[in-house]
Design goal:
about 210 residues; alpha/beta; Rossmann fold; five-stranded parallel sheet; binds guanosine-5'-monophosphate
Amino acid sequence: MNNKSQGVLIILSGPAGAGKTTYAKMLCDRLDDCVMSISATTRLPRGNEAHGKDYFFLNEDEFKQQIAEDKFAEYAKFSRNYYGTPKLFIDKNLSAGKNTILDIEVKGASQIKKTYNRAVMIFLLPPTPEILIERLRKRKTESNEEVSRRMDIARDEITKVNEYDYFLINDNLEKTYSLIESIVKADKYRIRGGEIDCWLGGRKSEDVLRIQD
Ligand code: 5GP
């Protein structure tokens, strides 16, 4: 009987092509009680991205208004746009016992860790630096200028890997997924405080753990 009432907050970070979104979706498909946070951003929608499904697409004024109203658990500027995680969503789902997944960049991840110190931070990279370059360049959705900005950011982001709890290389979909799933499942049993009270069922240990006459 563990104290499992609180969900696990899982942060997935890493540059494009590392598979963050794929793994976040797999976790939600395969595990019960898993939800993925939908961020707000000032970036324009790409391809068939939809408001409220992939992101909440806001203009800069709307985004700043939400900052002023303290609506974000974290926010950061990435390339030329703002991205932020809605605070209410995280708090509501964690207290409902749901594993809550954030696919966010490194500056936001470090803010989250300060507020939610039990967050599990996972950093993902594609198999080799060459594959990272190829994946960034092959994305047809961004201009050359944007690709090169994202490359600069990737160079910077990989220097932050030591701030994370786990480092995984996305070299095999099922293998990497099963490692992530194991991390999430194991974390559910990390000591959070209150485990023994839970086991004792609200009784005092001296009342329970004694030989009856
Ligand atoms: P993209 O524009 O490719 O969708 O996302 C760019 C980067 O922003 C990715 O590294 C993604 O993980 C990150 N990102 C997405 N949502 C958030 C968020 O709410 N907060 C932060 N800090 N980063 C985010």
